[in-house]
Amino acid sequence: MSEKIAAVHSDDIAVDGFAAAMKAKMAASRAKGRSGWPTASSANLTYLLVEHLEKGDPVDVANFAMMLHQNGQSVDKIVVQAYRKSIAES
Prior knowledge:
69% helix
């Protein structure tokens, strides 16, 4: 009997590739001595996420989103509101 091999969906391939890029960025950050995200506040991680949105690298943004997710945290709404206010005043 031949086993039926399930085709890998292109979404899964994309997610795996993106996860590899995220892991590489995290490893590079660890090599620079960065750590501590498991104990960081949601406000701090949200601030960093928004800051990296402006820098334009989606891998950095995804890593901060992952940190919030893994910590069981949500995006801090007060930080987002403060960011929106600062943009409106610019």
